[in-house]
Amino acid sequence: MATTPARLDPADLLAVGELLTDEERLIRDTVRKFADERIRPYVGEWFEQGVFPARELAPELGKLGVLGMHLDGYGCTGSSAVAYGVACMELEAADSGLRSFVSVQGSLAMRSIHAYGSEEQKQQWLPDLAAGRAIGCFALTEPDFGSDPANMRTRARRKGTDWVLSGSKMWITNGSISDVAVVWAQTDEGVRGFLVPKGTPGLTATDVHGKLSLRASVTSELAFDEVVLPADAVLPGVEGLRGPLSSLGEARYGILWGTVGAARDCYTTALDYAKSRIQFDRPIAGFQLTQQKLVEMMLEVEKAYLVAVRIGRLKDEGRCRPAHISFGKLNNVRAALEIARSARTILGANGITTEYPVLRHANNLESVLTYEGTAEIHTLVLGETITGEPAYR
Hints:
The model has no long low-confidence stretch (mean pLDDT about 95). Helix 4 packs antiparallel against helix 5 and helix 6 (about 240-275) packs parallel to helix 8. The protein is built from ten helices and eleven strands. It is of the alpha+beta class. The strands form four sheets. Strands 4-5-9-8 form a four-stranded antiparallel β-sheet, covered by helices on one side. Strands 3-6-7 form a three-stranded mixed β-sheet. The protein has three domains: about 15-130, Butyryl-Coa Dehydrogenase, subunit A, domain 1, CATH 1.10.540.10; about 135-235, Butyryl-CoA Dehydrogenase, subunit A, domain 2; about 240-385, Butyryl-CoA Dehydrogenase, subunit A, domain 3 (Up-down Bundle). Strand 1 and strand 2 form a beta hairpin.
């Protein structure tokens, strides 16, 4: 007797999820359940109000195991790159601000301490950061230097056995709520990283208001007015831009996965809406132009998902290069942003409200497009990779 073929899943037509291991699917489903229960019902209101309950959510995210989950020891779970990726995908399907919080905590602040800190620094900070008992931030970008960090003006000079830190950093996620800031500064020895605890005299944090993007996220300016730090505040394991740029590579990897989640959420929202929205006595899903939009969205979601899985496997095999990360971030963010915009047109006027997530995703993705490497910079990374010729200046 002939069997009826199983219906294809509109949310994953190529069954890309079958390329994941059982453990990776379990992590995906666990994080998705958390996001559905703890984030989705409230994030529209958080976005509208411009707030993010970080202190409330951080211990829950720690218990979930996603803070620094790709690091080993010190309370971290040591998960694979793909497992971390699928967690980022489900976090950003809820909101880019949530994924940004986890990414900054784990891939930037914690990863910098894990890779370059002393054993004492690791023991002091990593267990609390992994559990969400403490919050961290990563301070590299300055008001006048984003894509060109080599010319940063923040400087640390030696004074006896101490260091004196002066300057400012801008667009720092988690800045005002952090218990410790990983601050990168020029020194006579090159760029160095410093751990600056909350409450250190001379450190001030001012939140950025009036944002139209990443509103459910804390963004701050940090100012350092002759901040005196002890000798053991410096990260001893690295000198030069290799330190901050290597951690940024980890965060960008999370982005190329996270944007798949945002894109999928926009696509499935538009699909469900089109099937229930009646115009001219039929669902708008039955009109050719609507189907074309949905098909284009589906194609790009699946391609981005495949790109993320492939880069994740390369990373787990130790074969991932910076150009691979640039490939993923450039392609997947761009695709997600176009999907969000197209999905909004299917929802019509309803699409501009916080009742639906698509314009919130679109606004957030405008920030994701430019932070941690603009599309232009990633284009030039790939251009140099395929031609052998640098074209940054």
